[in-house]
Amino acid sequence: MDEKLSANTSTPPVILEIKNLTKKFATEGGRYLTACDNVSLRAYAGQTLGIIGESGCGKSTLVRTVLQIHPATSGEVIFEGHDLLKARGERSRQNRRSVQMVFQDPTAAFNPKMKVKDILCEPLKNFGLLKDSEVDAKACELLRMVELPEDFKDRYPHSMSGGQRQRLGIARALSLEPKIVVCDEATSALDVSVQEKICELLVRLQKEKGVTYLFICHDLGLVDLMCHQLAVMYLGNVVELLEKGRISQHARHPYTKALLQAVFKVDFRPGEKIQPIEGEVPSPLDVPQGCPFQSRCSQCQEICCKDKPVLRQVEDGHWVACHFVE
């Protein structure tokens, strides 16, 4: 893990660009819940874009909209020169080969009646890339890739541990050799020691295959170590975007700083305590005018209640949406 996903001195090409993506859900009474509000992000080839924020901030909805699990309200998702959101039919189906997902709960993502070899090879068979006679050999190859014994191919998922099932989920996602893999809270349900092994596996596979990760997570420390770029979301908005350096050293937005101060750590000094974020998150059904963080921000002033701040560059590779960032 100390190797991190070591940054290159030269910036790799952009492989995925999210442009002004908005997702609203219709509710009773003709109202709309805004889950993602005009989000723009870039993911670079062979690197990891981390997306963090409290529960309900819109990070999972964002990636599920990118994957077209939810239809977008507006915006674009540019991949290899075309908009994923406009693809239809066979073009949309082929796009799914290039963008795969590792889910938070691998048990719920697997058919409990299917053997491991069938779970791993089902995507390949769906695309006509594998014959029935080749299933056993391919399953063994994929199991070796994620450091699982080959004889697991004849098991069922319920007979495996949580960490082993998540390795299985990673193997299935990579079976089609995608260019982008979305990891949606892929480590949050695992023990800390298992998390480390899974993250080391992801790092190794990224170096070997050059795959790009979209890494959704609550763990600030883990995201800070794992990711090349980092986006902080609050109430459907990206409030801070860091493409260089570590967020623990360069945080500038009041919300990001508050998140860092609210984290438990094992090396507390005598008298030191966490500082929870005061106040309640406004309802996404009734987002306040102005800055979305105004009701919980100690620096809030009159302009914050009137004008919504936009992301502006504060230094090279660093953008913050705050009226008073220094």
Describe this structure in words.
The longest helix is centred in the middle third of the chain and has 18 residues, at 192-209. The protein contains eleven helices and twelve strands. 30% of the residues lie in helices and 22% in strands. The strands form two sheets. Strands 6-7-8-3-9-10-12-11 form an eight-stranded mixed beta sheet, with helices on both faces. The model is unreliable at 1-9 (pLDDT under 50). Helix 4 runs parallel beside helix 6 (162-174) and helix 6 (162-174) runs parallel beside helix 7. By secondary structure, it is of the alpha/beta class. The chain has helices spanning 59-66, 89-98, 106-109, 116-126, 135-145, 162-174, 192-209, 220-226, 247-250, 254-261, 302-306; strands at 14-26, 32-44, 48-52, 74-79, 82-83, 99-102, 180-184, 212-216, 229-234, 237-242, 312-315, 318-320.
Furnish the topology, listing elements before pairings.
Layout: E1 14-26, E2 32-44, E3 48-52, H1 59-66, E4 74-79, E5 82-83, H2 89-98, E6 99-102, H3 106-109, H4 116-126, H5 135-145, H6 162-174, E7 180-184, H7 192-209, E8 212-216, H8 220-226, E9 229-234, E10 237-242, H9 247-250, H10 254-261, H11 302-306, E11 312-315, E12 318-320
Parallel strand pairs: 3-8, 3-9, 6-7, 7-8
Antiparallel strand pairs: 1-2, 1-4, 4-5, 9-10, 10-12, 11-12
